[in-house]
Amino acid sequence: MTAELIRPALLGLAPVACFLGALVFLDSYKLVRFGLVLGVVASGMAVAVAAYYVNGFFLGELPVSFDAYTRYCAPLVEEALKALVIVALLRANRLGFLVDAAILGFATGTGFAMVENLFYLQLAPGASMGTWLVRGFGTAMMHGGATAIFGVIAMAMLERNRARPIAVVLGFALAVLLHSAYNHFFFSPLASTAGIALALPLLLQLVFAKSEAAVGSWLGTGFDADAQMLELIESGSFSDSPVGRYLEELKDKFQGPIVADLLCYLRLYTELALRAKGILMMRENGFDVAVDEATREKFTEMRYLEKSIGRTGILALQPMLHMSHKELWQLYMLGKR
Question: Which residues are CB-contacts of 218 (< 8 A; sequence separation ≥ 6)?
Fold first, then answer.
């Protein structure tokens, strides 16, 4: 890369990359692994390449001008493709809290914007510094912010136990609206860029504050509930408890060895849930705790038990395990350490 291209490349790529780094650093509970962030950035890059071909196809087929396409059609295509990354993370239980969705949503947009700006650099190497200022602090940040908003709204809706399609549609509509409004340039490009650069940090600061309060509350109540469950399992009166009676009723539906495996699975799940919450508490206080070999062996045993009891057994235990997206996420977080 020649010296003449270094400054525009830095203006186009550095702001969004630095902002993403700041988001990861400000995550006091370290909910998102750095390796996952890099993987999501790579996914955003792949999505940008796909968007190039999809936009090219529709631009050639639809009877609309280039300006109309960039204002109304491109936002739909690009936000839909970026949203697929977040939907895949949600389905895989990789998101537990709003801050996860904000960071990984912005990471998706970061990858997308970096490829888009590199492509623009090839098309217009002689563009002015003002143009690159707008693309770096405005367009790139808009891509990251729009996908972050989609992820945050989807997570917020899911936490209220609303239907998944509604969560996705509402977040997607707002992301498209933001993207389209930015492409209209109702104000001057520099004014739009300034608006994005000022509003996005404030919005994400509110998301971080709300999410950290939610994490603290969940850790407190969840830790107590898990500890009580483990104490009940280890007590001599477990068979007389509601959980014990529920397992007793399952003898009519499962063979004896399977019921024993259900109890083992319940114990392991609770122990690992406690371990995951303990790690988050340590992280919040500045300690990074490694997962020991005994914990890894428990994961191996739990995977064996999952195969033994089958999907029907897992469903039967759900009333006791409280398998919401947060609980499933915490096991993923612990198992990938």
Answer: 326
Alpha-carbon 221 to chain mean position: 23
DSSP, residue by residue, 170-205: HHHHHHHHHHHHHHHTSS-HHHHHHHHHHHHHHHHH
Note whether 314 and 306 are within 8 A (CB).
yes
Exposure string for 9-44, b = 16+ CB within 10 A, e = fewer = bebbbebbbebbeebbeebebbbbeeebbebbbebb
Residue 86 near residue 151 (C-beta atoms within 8 A): yes
pLDDT of the residue at 36: 92
Least confident among 91-95, 107-111, 230-234? 230-234
User: What is the C-alpha to C-alpha distance for residues 102 and 4, in angstroms, rounded to an integer?
Assistant: 34
More confident residue, 204 or 316: 204
Cα–Cα distance, 145 to 314 (Å, whole number): 37
Q: Which residue has the tokens 């107590």?
A: 224
Q: How far is CA 230 from CA 73, 87, 139, 221, 226, in A?
A: 54, 33, 51, 14, 6
The answer to whether 140 touches 113, Cβ cutoff 8 Å, is: yes
Nearest to residue 328, comparing CAs of 261, 283, 272, 263? Answer: 272
pLDDT digits over 236-276, tens only?
666 676 667 766 666 666 776 787 888 888 888 888 777 77
Q: pTM above the 0.85 mark?
A: no
Any long-range contacts for 50-59 (C-beta under 8 Å, 24+ apart)?
50/81, 51/77, 51/78, 51/81, 51/112, 52/119, 54/81
